[in-house]
Amino acid sequence: MATLIDRRLDGKNKSAVNRQRFIRRFKNQIKKAVTEAMNGRSITDIDNGEKVNIPARDLSEPVFGHGPGGKREAIHPGNKEFVAGDRAARPQGGGGSGGGGGQASNSGEGEDDFVFDLSREEFLELFFEDLELPNLVRTQLAKLTEFKSVRAGFSSAGNPANIDVVRSLKGAMARRMALAAPYTRRLREAEEQLQRLLAEPPVDDSRARELIEDIEHLRARARAVPFIDTFDLRYTNRVKQPQPTTQAVMFCVMDVSGSMDRARKDLAKRFFTLLYLFLKRNYEKIEVVFIRHHTVAKEVDEQEFFYSRETGGTVVSSALHLMGETMAARYPTSSWNIYVAQASDGDNWHHDSPACRDILLKQIVPFVRYYAYIEITPDRHQSLWEAYEEVKEQHPHFAMRQIDGPADIYPVFRDLFKRRVS
């Protein structure tokens, strides 16, 4: 019997497989703990790992054990209560027991919750797992970077791993038949002549020997044709075919007017930070356009969008005009999936709200895949919300949510971008 000895050194990640198996097995409990942990996070630690607590009762597993039933004989040393022949009473309760629970007991025994450390990648993967951009479709061929390998017949050269055995043998058989055909035909004629010569006495021995030599020679020539040649080999040919890409652009529109105080701007920045992290992690071909506005709107970069201190009055239509012009100039709907996320406190110049409604209905909403409006106010809704409600009645892909405080950011975000069942 062979004996195998594994002398490989233990790797530092030797428990990685067991770790992933544990995450898959208790995924529901971990996801619930991740969701609860996100509610207490700040803008500075959104991209870190997390310690999650899983109740010990959720980790219990069924076990099999032998009950106390049946007949058995046993000798217990030091027994002073029973003698041979006495009948012992059956113990109260079940025979087996599962994992312990986390509740208090009068015996002073219990189990603490199980604490599990999630890395940054594991934490973000669990949090963003069931989120997606709604209504994302494959657009026309624009920036062709995706290719699909498709079969394109056969070639006489290629990788040995791609050799087509059946096609190669068919080619070899056809070649052998073509090259050996002249010898086979002459061989058949010589054999027929030899049979006729032997059937008509007297037999001409010299002629018979000559025919026999021709037959042997023709058989040798026919056998000399190789069974398979490099010329016969055929390989599966594959070519890369361009595929439509899922290009998408997200317009992030933030109100930085004077009515947006520091606390409200901080809530808006938290929401957009979470959105930006989600987009960059889950989608490769995505562009993000940042627009800030007060009385005047302008397109800015990421740094200025999150950290600029510019402020002023409130004219929301300026941002919508700029967004519509940018969409028409750089992002045609035939090639791009367009998304919009807008955050404001809803406090707009009264005469400007109807103009915002008209711009949305005519220039923006019919051409976007999804529009999400977040109003950051603990008070009653402002005039902008009332105008946007008219847009929502006509377009089901226009979503509106209200955020009162930091605890509402993550539930609202997950509700806006949860995976829809098609």
Please give a structural write-up.
Belongs to the UPF0229 family. Residues 92-103 have a biased composition (Gly residues). The structure is a single chain. The protein is of the alpha/beta class and 422 residues long. Among the domains are: 160-237; 248-416, Rossmann fold (3-Layer(aba) Sandwich). The chain contains eleven helices and ten strands. It has helices spanning 16-25, 27-38, 120-128, 165-199, 205-223, 262-282, 302-307, 316-330, 353-364, 383-394, 409-416, and strands at residues 50-54, 114-118, 147-155, 235-242, 248-255, 286-293, 297-300, 337-344, 370-376, 398-403. A six-stranded mixed sheet has the order 7-6-5-8-9-10, sandwiched between helices. A two-stranded antiparallel ribbon has the order 1-2. A two-stranded antiparallel ribbon has the order 3-4. A hairpin with a 3-residue loop joins strand 6 (286-293) and strand 7. Helix 8 (316-330) runs parallel beside helix 9. The longest helix is centred in the middle third of the chain and has 35 residues, at 165-199. The radius of gyration is 40 Å and the shape is flat. Mean pLDDT is 77; it is low at 95-102 and 138-144.
